[in-house]
Amino acid sequence: MLFNYSSIAIIILSQIIQTLTLLEDAKLFFTDLSSKYGHPAEKYDVTTEDGYILTLYRLPGKSKLPVLLMHGLFSTADSWILRGNTSLPITLANSGYDVWIGNCRGNTYSRKHIHISPNSRKFWNFTFHELAIYDLRAVIDKVLKETGAKKLNAIGHSLGNTIFYVLGSTVPEYNEKLNLLIALSPICYLHNVPSPVKNILDLAPFFKELRKQNYVDKVFGPGLIKQLLEKICANPVYGYIICVETLLFPLTGFNREELGPDFLPILISHFPSSSSLKNLLHLAQVYNRRKFAKYDYGFSKNFLLYNSTKPPLYDLGKVKMRIALISAKNDRLSTLKDVEILRGRLTNIVSDLVMPLDKFNHVDYIWGERTNLYLHPYILSELKMYS
Ligand SMILES: *[C@@H]1O[C@H](CO)[C@@H](O)[C@H](O)[C@H]1NC(C)=O
Ligand SMILES: *[C@@H]1O[C@H](CO)[C@@H](O)[C@H](O)[C@H]1NC(C)=O
Ligand SMILES: *[C@@H]1O[C@H](CO)[C@@H](O)[C@H](O)[C@H]1NC(C)=O
């Protein structure tokens, strides 16, 4: 009996400690979090060819091949580390990897430019095309320069994969700089997204008009909507129902088991971060035109920019880097059907895993409570196999 009481007490106590840790982490950002979990981060500034200044983090380690993590849409480097001790960067660093974590233009850590103000329209004139050919390229070069390595391993989540396909097809010599890309929730084609993802993408003409009229350039920048969202989501009674069950899960897939109410305070203080509206419009074009192609500016401007009235396709045949695909049945943004199309076009897939858990969704790769059990061992074995 006594034994039972004390074990219950220990469980309750550890629950309380866990909750307090999550509440504390809600106020911490990348370098504080990485230090707290045993790996003080180094911070680098990377200036792209077109003048954007990006923040790049490093958790130094002994591995010869560095590992670069690239976040998805509306995310930052923080998204990778929100699960603290059981997060991917900490797991990799604990295993001796030299871990680098990028931030794309427009997010909280990379809202800087050598002469363009983030308040100007010009700053937000980019899509995932620019994230690939400027940001990703500059980040890869910086990692290789600092480490002296010839190649690196990369792990991308969501749009953090798309940029590798764009770079590999547009600037083919970058294929040589990648030893292996591990693609978590690979997004490329969007033919089969279910509603309400579909319905949001169908609103593209409306958003395009807003952009044209100069009303909106960025999404989730600091401002009223973001503040309102934070207020609502912080509510202990209805925050989880509104923000996670009503807003997030319909887009990413329902899975309460991996993302419970206790995680919401830390999530909402780090996500979503800003990106351009044009980025979203470009994704909507991929969905609407059913083509993985450059941005469609319309007939005459296309002709000026591309020497063709239609935007040129990204040629996935030119993406020669080794790729490990990891997809999931309950991922509503990267559906199995769309991954199937991608699988048919990529030429160097070295492994291909569909997560064995039925409920595993789009965000469980980075935020799932037990991703360290389900996913990280696989990632570690892939890295080992190709190193
Ligand atoms: C994280 O793990 C390390 C090593 O296992 C441990 O020393 C530390 O206390 C843990 N930190 C937290 C906050 O759980
Ligand atoms: C955005 O970029 C496009 C393509 O390079 C260019 O034609 C357009 O004028 C730019 N718009 C702004 C507001 O900078
Ligand atoms: C434009 O495209 C046409 C036909 O598609 C081609 O003949 C021409 O060389 C191209 N011009 C340039 C400048 O690339």
Brief overview:
43% of the residues lie in helices and 12% in strands.
Number of strands: 10
Work out the helix count.
Answer: 17
CATH architecture group name: 3-Layer(aba) Sandwich
- Find the structural class using helix and strand composition: alpha/beta
Low-confidence stretches: none
For CATH, the homologous superfamily is named as Alpha/Beta hydrolase fold, catalytic domain
User: First CA to last CA: what distance?
Assistant: 52 Å
Largest sheet, in brief, is: 8 strands, mixed
**Outline type:** globular
Q: What integer is the average pLDDT?
A: 94
State the domain count: 1
Task: Give an account of the 3D structure.
This protein is an alpha/beta fold. It has one domain (20-386): Alpha/Beta hydrolase fold, catalytic domain (Rossmann fold, 3-Layer(aba) Sandwich), CATH 3.40.50.1820. Helix content is 43%, strand content 12%. It contains 17 helices and 10 strands. The model has no long low-confidence stretch (mean pLDDT 94). Bound molecules: 2-acetamido-2-deoxy-beta-D-glucopyranose (3 copies). Residues 121-122, 125 line the site of one 2-acetamido-2-deoxy-beta-D-glucopyranose.
Topology readout:
Elements: H1 2-25, H2 30-36, E1 42-47, E2 53-59, E3 67-70, H3 78-81, H4 88-94, E4 99-101, H5 128-147, E5 152-157, H6 159-170, E6 178-184, H7 197-202, H8 204-212, E7 218-219, H9 224-234, H10 239-252, H11 264-268, E8 275-276, H12 277-289, H13 299-306, E9 323-327, H14 336-345, E10 349-354, H15 364-367, H16 371-374, H17 376-385
Parallel strand pairs: 3-4, 3-5, 5-6, 6-9, 9-10
Antiparallel strand pairs: 1-2, 2-4, 7-8
